[in-house]
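tokens incoming
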């Protein structure tokens, strides 16, 4: 199966995602994969060779110190020691204690010989926003968990990504850098090798990976604001979080109101905000996080009495009832809209933009999941990998 056929197979259940085709990033020697495009990047194995040219400022360091400054962990360097071809200085094997000089060329080689042992390959659909030698940026649909668990061993993003590479004959270890809740849609970074994983995880800890979210909140929010409130686990609950000033962890959310919308429970989406009552108005928000706590945006907005539309945990209007029927098809993330029991929508929260430094480069890279807001809001069906698009 060719790469194009493989991607089309993955996208088959998501035909309508062309409406939110992602931006194309073209390098000097490659074309990256994007939804709705017929050009795709790829190699035939997961071996990666990194090449470093030693500059005057790096002269005198040993190889170990140089690579540590490039983001290699001690674990990675220890795992490379038994392989004489893993670290080469000017084409020759050298020990990690060997010094480097200006003009030297240092190369390292990493490879995953086998796929993740505990992830069963399965054709789970997901969108691909960007791909190069080191990372895969995916657009996660609603209702899809990231990692397998006892309750969902096969229907996860990890299963789909491993299957995607298995069909190309490539062993793959699933290393997802950032996290999203099951019902949240949007962009995720998957590292394709252990070096990229280590570098990106350190960047995440240093808050150098910038994530922008779009959400729809109940009511009319302030034009802009910041929520600084610690979040902890709710007593006697394994899932729910709450504001916990005493035992919670620091959590800071910044939001900006992009526009006000008529209530999505109304059958006429084009109704004007002026003709809607205060309880009907909803707010389209752009949010950025200083921290990354579980359910942070959902808990913080609920604490302002502006819970997110479609939130079955923190929005009382959307709490599931035992007698609520579950429609056929994509049952995950479907919820009962107030006043409209026949209409079901997903959680209105998505990661719309990711920005970070590319591996081996000081250039900032930005991936987009939805087009910038322009004219009017349109709701999408639950099968769509993003919750809305613009036209």
């Amino acid at each position: 199966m060719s790469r194009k056929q493989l991607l089309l197979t993955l996208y088959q259940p998501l035909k309508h995602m062309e409406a939110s085709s992602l931006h194309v990033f073209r390098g000097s020697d490659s074309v990256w994969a994007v939804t709705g495009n017929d050009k795709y990047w790829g190699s035939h194995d997961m071996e990666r060779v990194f090449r470093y040219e030693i500059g005057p400022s790096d002269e005198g360091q040993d190889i170990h110190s140089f690579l540590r400054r490039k983001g290699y962990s001690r674990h990675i360097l220890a795992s490379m020691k038994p392989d004489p071809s893993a670290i080469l200085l000017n084409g020759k094997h050298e020990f990690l204690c060997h010094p480097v000089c200006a003009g030297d060329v240092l190369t390292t080689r990493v490879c995953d010989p086998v796929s993740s042992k505990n992830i069963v390959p399965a054709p789970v659909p997901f969108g691909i926003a960007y791909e190069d030698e080191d990372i895969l940026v995916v657009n996660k649909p609603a209702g899809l968990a990231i990692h397998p668990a006892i309750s969902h061993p096969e229907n996860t993003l990890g299963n789909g990504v491993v299957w995607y590479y298995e069909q190309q004959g490539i062993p793959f270890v699933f290393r997802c850098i950032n996290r999203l809740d099951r019902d949240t849609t949007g962009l995720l970074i998957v590292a394709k090798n252990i070096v990229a994983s280590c570098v990106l995880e350190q960047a995440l800890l240093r808050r150098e990976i910038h994530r922008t979210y779009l959400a729809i909140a109940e009511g009319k929010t302030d034009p802009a604001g910041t929520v600084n409130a610690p979040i902890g686990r709710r007593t006697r609950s394994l899932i729910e979080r709450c504001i916990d000033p005493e035992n919670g962890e620091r959590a800071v959310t910044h939001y900006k109101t992009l526009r006000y919308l008529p209530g999505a429970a109304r059958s006429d989406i084009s109704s004007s905000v002026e003709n809607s009552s205060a309880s009907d108005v909803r707010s389209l928000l752009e949010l950025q996080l200083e921290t990354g706590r579980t359910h942070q945006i959902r808990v913080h907005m609920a604490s302002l009495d502006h819970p997110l539309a479609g939130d079955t945990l923190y929005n009382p209007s959307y709490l599931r009832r035992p007698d609520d029927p579950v429609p056929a098809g994509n049952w995950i993330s479907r919820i009962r809209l107030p006043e409209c029991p026949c209409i079901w929508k997903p959680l209105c929260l998505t990661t719309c933009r990711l920005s970070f430094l590319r591996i081996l480069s000081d250039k900032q890279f930005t991936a987009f999941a939805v087009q910038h807001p322009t004219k009017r809001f349109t709701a999408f069906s639950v099968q769509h990998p993003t919750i809305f698009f613009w036209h």
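note: Confidence is low (pLDDT under 50) at residues 7-44, 264-271, 324-344, 371-391.
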